[in-house]
Amino acid sequence: MDTETEKIGLIKHINHEHIDAVNRIGRYFDADNSDEKTIGYQLLDYDAQACYLAKSIHGQKQGSLRIAFKCSGDVEAQILYLSYAAKHQQGQFPLIRNLRRFRCLSKKLVSPHICRLHWSAYEPLGSFPAGYAFYVSLQRHFIAKPEAALDQKQMAVSRYYTLRRSYPATHNQPAQMQMDIYIHGDSYGSQWVKALQEGEVMSTIGEYDEQLNIINVDYPYVLVGDETAYPAIAAFMERLPDHQRRQALLLLFAHDASEISYFDDIDGFKDIRQLLMVYPASDLQPAQQAIWQHVKNHMAKATIWGALEIKRSQVLNQWLSRHTDIAPHQIRLKGYWRQK
Ligand SMILES: Cc1cc2nc3c(=O)[nH]c(=O)nc-3n(C[C@H](O)[C@H](O)[C@H](O)COP(=O)(O)OP(=O)(O)OC[C@H]3O[C@@H](n4cnc5c(N)ncnc54)[C@H](O)[C@@H]3O)c2cc1C
Question: Ligand 1 pocket, 160 CB below 6 A?
Answer without folding.
Answer: yes
